[in-house]
Design brief:
The protein has 232 residues and is α/β, with parallel strands linked by helices. It has one domain: 3-Layer(aba) Sandwich (Rossmann fold). The chain has a five-stranded parallel β-sheet with strand order 1-7-6-2-3, sandwiched between helices. Strand 6, helix 9 and strand 7 form a beta-alpha-beta unit. Helix 4 crosses helix 5, helix 5 crosses helix 7 and helix 8 runs parallel beside helix 9. The longest helix has 16 residues.
Length: 232
């Protein structure tokens, strides 16, 4: 009987196993970070196809956005929370790129966002970005752009003031904490452009509101917002 020679892919998998970031199984394609089961477990909002959805309503009367949406519902102790923790606190930049591709797929099928010119990640303060090693919103933007081709403009909109975490603050405190935080280094790069401002999670929208307000000071700019998750 002839011995069956192992494929190179089998040997690579043996020495460099590729596991699902969600459940840990190794039954997944090397191009994916989540297995099919975990991908199907993510709670889709369908907001990218809905005008006046809950994300847009957050900014009503506060920030004049063209469109706004989140890809998934965020709840505590969920798979999505685990993935966001991996992205923000465990150095897993790759999962941000992969999740960005999922967001990009929603954008690519939505007629509401066809006129977007540029992707702008919500900036981190340099101290926080240096500590983390990257901006998670930029990782999402890069993933989005890989399936929904748009130029990513990074490091032009900056967070010039270091702020404490917003997690445990109320809406008013969050808004006050963001006053005067953002600045645009080269306004001409954004002038007369429809800009998609991207972040990981939207809760009260205070940070996105402050950043978007600064961008809208530039003549001819239009703002839309896209996030990975919306907090219920």
């Amino acid at each position: 009987m002839l011995a069956v020679k192992p494929k190179w892919s089998d040997l690579l998998h043996l020495f460099f196993p590729h596991n699902c970031v969600g459940c840990g199984t190794d039954i997944l394609d090397s191009k994916h970070n989540l297995c099919l089961h975990c991908t199907n477990e993510l709670p889709v909002t369908n907001f990218f196809l809905q005008a006046k959805n809950p994300v847009e309503q957050i900014f009503t009367g506060r920030l004049p956005i063209r469109n706004g949406a989140a890809a998934y519902f965020f709840t505590k102790e969920s798979l999505l929370q685990h993935l966001i923790v991996q992205l923000k606190y465990c150095g897993n930049k790759e999962v941000g790129y992969y999740l960005g591709k999922l967001v990009g797929n929603f954008l690519a099928t939505s007629p509401l966002y066809e006129q977007v010119d540029l992707l702008v990640p919500l900036p981190l303060n340099p101290r926080k970005e240096k500590k983390r090693g990257y901006n998670q919103a930029t990782a999402l933007c890069d993933g989005i752009a890989s399936v929904w081709p748009r130029e990513v403009i990074d490091k032009n909109v900056i967070r010039k003031v270091y702020t404490e975490t917003q997690t445990h603050k109320g809406r008013i405190s969050r808004w006050q904490n963001m006053d005067g935080v953002f600045s645009v280094l080269e306004p001409a790069r954004l002038q007369n452009k429809h800009i998609l401002l991207v972040d990981d999670v939207v809760t009260t929208g205070a940070t996105l509101e402050a950043c978007g307000s600064e961008i809208l000071k530039i003549p001819g700019t239009i703002i839309s917002i896209a996030t990975l998750a919306y907090t219920i």
